[in-house]
Structure formats: structure tokens, C-alpha cells
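Hi all, posting the design record for the shared folder.

TITLE: backbone redesign
STEP: 1 of 1
STRUCTURE INPUT:
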């Protein structure tokens, strides 16, 4: 019991660090916009536009984190998860997402959302992500783009059993996804080829 609590605490700390890291950029931009208001040579509408854009980006990221890591992801319908990540990618303008209705429950929808988010990390220059489900239930998230690849440390935690003490804020999401796959009754596989990566759940 004590060991389980220690593991949970490590994961909470790392996921919190990851969320804070990903929010620093847009939140900092909101602050920068506020500081620009009233300065000579800077129109207030320009500063407000920066604040609005950055505020929306922060809100989109928070929504994804809420669905991916929070309890809400176990009860929100899959369409809402799909729409949230699609809107985030559309605003970013670097990644296209094809995720049609594949007939899965919220728990598996949350799993796919995390798979899509990890696949996005493998596309440093943007690209295309596609979600498919085969008749026997296998779910595949394919990502293709220039220099598409998972970082070796992230690939390792998705493929292998890793102690939580070995994780850091960058790798904790891959660890979380692997364990989420086990909790939903399946297993996660990782494939990589030149310019293509795939996460497979079956």
C-alpha cells in the first residue's frame, strides 16, 4: 500500500510538472501582452490580440490535459475528446487529424486521445495522424511526417516496464499511456519506420 502511494505521488508530481511546462508558453504570452498595453508604439488592439490568442491556446491545452489525465476522461463521450484534440491541431496549423467514429466507449476514447497526443510529439515538423479500428478491435494511431520519430527515452517507457523513479516530466506521458492500455484490458505496441510511427492497442 505504501509503495503504491509512493508511485502515485511520483506520477502526480511528474504529470503536474509536465502540465506546467506545457502551459508556461501561452500563459507567459498572455502576461507579455498585458505588459505591452499602454507602451509607446504598441497598439492596445495588438496586445489584446496576443492575449486572446495565447489565452485560447492555454484553454485548449488545459482541456486536453483534463480529458487525458483527469477523471473527466472516463465519462466524457469520445466525440468530445475527438473534437477537443481536432480543434487544438487546427489552431496549431501543423497537423491534420483523421479520427472518424470507431465505436468505442469513453475509457477507450481516453486511451485513443492519449495515443494521438503522443503521436503528435513524434511529429517535430507537423504531419498527418490517422486513427483506425479493425474488426477484431485493434486500434491503430498512425503518424506520418518529416523526421517523424519518438524520442528514444519515450519509446522505451512505452515498450518496456520502467520504474517510476526512472521517469521525468518528458517521459511520464508514455508511461501513463502504457499503463492506461493495460488498465483497459489490452497492450500497447510501438512501430517506427522512416517518416512514420504507429501506436497499436490490442
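Okay, here is what came back for every position:
SEQUENCE:
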Amino acid at each position: 500500500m505504501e509503495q503504491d502511494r509512493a508511485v502515485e505521488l511520483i506520477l502526480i508530481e511528474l504529470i503536474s510538472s509536465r502540465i506546467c511546462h506545457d502551459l508556461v508558453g501561452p500563459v507567459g504570452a498572455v502576461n507579455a501582452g498585458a505588459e505591452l498595453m499602454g507602451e509607446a508604439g504598441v497598439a492596445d488592439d495588438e496586445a489584446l490580440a496576443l492575449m486572446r490568442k495565447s489565452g485560447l491556446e492555454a484553454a485548449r491545452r488545459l482541456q486536453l490535459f483534463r480529458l487525458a489525465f483527469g477523471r473527466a476522461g472516463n465519462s466524457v463521450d469520445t466525440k468530445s475528446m475527438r473534437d477537443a484534440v481536432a480543434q487544438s491541431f487546427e489552431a496549431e496549423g501543423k497537423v491534420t487529424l483523421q479520427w472518424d467514429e470507431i465505436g468505442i466507449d469513453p475509457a477507450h476514447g481516453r486511451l485513443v486521445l492519449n495515443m494521438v497526443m503522443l503521436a503528435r510529439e513524434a511529429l517535430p515538423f507537423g504531419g498527418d495522424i490517422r486513427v483506425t479500428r479493425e474488426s477484431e478491435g485493434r486500434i491503430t494511431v498512425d503518424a506520418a511526417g518529416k523526421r517523424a520519430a519518438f524520442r528514444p527515452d519515450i519509446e522505451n517507457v512505452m515498450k518496456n516496464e520502467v520504474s517510476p523513479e526512472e521517469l521525468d516530466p518528458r517521459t511520464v506521458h508514455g508511461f501513463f499511456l502504457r499503463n492506461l492500455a493495460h488498465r483497459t484490458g489490452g497492450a500497447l505496441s510501438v512501430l517506427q519506420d522512416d517518416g512514420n510511427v504507429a501506436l497499436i492497442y490490442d
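COMMENT: Residues 2-201 form a domain with the Heat Shock Protein 90 fold (CATH 3.30.565.10).
Let me know if anyone wants the other runs.
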